[in-house]
């Protein structure tokens, strides 16, 4: 494609070509002629291509000679045309079925003796599409899920800069949300303030909605704002995030409207101790499961482990809806032998979901040479608002 004066790339063309070259070397080593990729995170990491149109069918074909073809909806062609990493574009009109267009395109080439590696672990590639492709394609296909995590789990200096900026936006969103809380306002008012704070600080759209929930519904993991009006003695659980160049950082806090009850204060104390334990334990050479075990020893001692249902943390970085995490290949959790290395990034997110309320205090970190750096610096304390 011809490069325009307008560019959507976040990194250099040389960096993208290097990533593609590494993938192609792996293709050749596996005696494959091409790879078909469906995950928008992987497409973005390999080529810099991004669109909010990921919800319709699209695929990235990378041949073993490193030729890159994007098969996507016609309206995405302008975005592809300004991307110098993409060599060609195959349009899917709104009257066509995407998998049929892809199959027809592949069958036009010298593919009778070809073998294509298929990304089969993507949520963006349905069983129906797989069955159609394998039934009608001349070439043979094999499951081939490239080890992106080997390259994505340690962030570059530029990526860490964006995550620090995303962390700044997340903190601004959290500040705005806390300042908006008072009796009589709705969860929507607080969520609007959070969005305004983060977006005004530079955040793009997030890979996952931020979280604002109050009262008894804080006991429900992943419940969201729903027009509920804040009442005295409510717990308000807030999780804010920022996104810069698709790289994310998050932070959470909990607020009590009025004076906290003894059980609320004790819950906050335990969660904050878990968070401090995670921060103190994370360093190069430590295993994921060791961080998780250190954190669970805190909840075990406090006899509240039955309420700590979440993993201690999950990997963060690139995110497209519906997810802002890289937790499918990097996490702080039980039985995970992953050895922490500098440049790995996590959202440490200890929570307690009790019967009548839930609380969370979290922060995003990057593993450094001798410990970790906080990407979302925010006071780690229970906020009790005066009535």
Q: Which runs of at least 5 residues are low in confidence (pLDDT < 50)?
A: none
**Overall mean pLDDT:** 96
**CATH architecture classification of the largest domain:** Alpha-Beta Complex
Secondary structure tally: strands = 18
CATH topology annotation of the largest domain: Creatine Amidinohydrolase
What would CATH call the class of the largest domain?
Alpha Beta
Distance between the termini: 60 Å
- The percent range for helix content is 25-40%
Oligomer: single chain
Order of helix and strand elements from N to C terminus: HEHEEHEHEHEHHHEEEHHEEEEEEEEE
Structure at a glance:
The chain is of the alpha+beta class and 387 residues long. The chain contains ten helices and 18 strands.
Characteristics:
2 domains, Creatine Amidinohydrolase, alpha+beta, single chain, elongated, 6-stranded antiparallel beta sheet, 387 residues, 6-stranded mixed beta sheet, 22% strand, Creatine Amidinohydrolase, Chain A, domain 1, 18 strands, 10 helices
Give structural notes.
With 387 residues, the protein is an alpha+beta fold. The protein has two domains: 139 residues, 3-Layer(aba) Sandwich (Creatine Amidinohydrolase, Chain A, domain 1); 233 residues, Creatinase/methionine aminopeptidase superfamily (Creatine Amidinohydrolase, Alpha-Beta Complex), CATH 3.90.230.10. The protein is 33% helix and 22% strand. The chain has a six-stranded mixed β-sheet. Strands 10, 11, 12, 13, 16 and 17 form a six-stranded antiparallel β-sheet that branches. Helix 4 packs parallel to helix 5, helix 7 packs antiparallel against helix 8 and helix 9 runs antiparallel to helix 10. The longest helix has 24 residues. The protein is elongated. It starts with 12 loop residues before the first helix and ends with a strand. The model has no long low-confidence stretch (mean pLDDT 96).
């Amino acid at each position: 494609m011809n490069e325009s004066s307008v560019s959507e790339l976040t990194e250099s063309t040389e960096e993208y070509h290097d990533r593609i070259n590494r993938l192609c070397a792996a293709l050749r080593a596996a005696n494959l002629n091409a790879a078909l990729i469906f995950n928008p995170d992987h497409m973005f990491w390999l080529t810099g291509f991004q669109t909010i149109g990921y919800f319709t069918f699209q695929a990235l074909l990378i041949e073993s000679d490193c030729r890159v073809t994007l098969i996507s909806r016609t309206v995405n062609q302008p975005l592809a045309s300004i991307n110098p990493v993409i060599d060609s574009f195959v349009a899917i009109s709104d009257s066509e079925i995407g998998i049929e267009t892809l199959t027809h395109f592949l069958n036009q080439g010298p593919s009778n003796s070809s073998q294509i590696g298929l990304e089969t672990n993507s949520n963006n590639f349905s069983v129906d599409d797989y069955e159609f492709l394998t039934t009608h394609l001349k070439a043979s296909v094999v499951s081939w899920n490239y080890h992106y995590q080997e390259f994505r789990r340690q962030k570059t200096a530029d990526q860490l800069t964006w995550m620090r900026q995303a962390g700044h936006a997340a903190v601004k969103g959290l500040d705005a949300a806390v300042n908006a809380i008072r009796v009589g306002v709705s969860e929507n008012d607080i969520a609007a303030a959070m969005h305004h704070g983060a977006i005004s600080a530079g955040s793009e759209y997030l890979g996952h909605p931020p979280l604002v929930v109050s009262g008894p519904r804080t006991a429900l993991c992943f419940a969201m704002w729903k027009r509920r009006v804040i009442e005295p003695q409510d717990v308000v659980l807030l999780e804010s995030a920022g996104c810069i160049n698709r790289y994310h950082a998050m932070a959470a806090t909990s607020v009590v409207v009025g004076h906290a009850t003894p059980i609320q204060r004790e819950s906050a104390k335990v969660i904050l101790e878990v968070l401090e334990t995670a921060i103190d334990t994370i360093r190069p050479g430590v295993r994921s499961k060791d961080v998780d075990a250190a954190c669970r020893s805190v909840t075990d001692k406090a006899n509240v482990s039955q309420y700590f249902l979440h993993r201690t943390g999950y990997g963060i970085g690139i995110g497209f809806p519906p997810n802002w995490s890289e937790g499918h290949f990097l996490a702080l959790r039980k039985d995970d032998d992953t050895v922490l290395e500098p440049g790995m990034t996590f959202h440490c997110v200890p929570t307690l979901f009790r019967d009548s309320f839930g609380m969370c205090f979290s922060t995003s970190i990057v593993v450094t040479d001798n410990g970790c750096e906080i990407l979302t610096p925010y006071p780690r304390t229970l906020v009790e608002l005066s009535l």
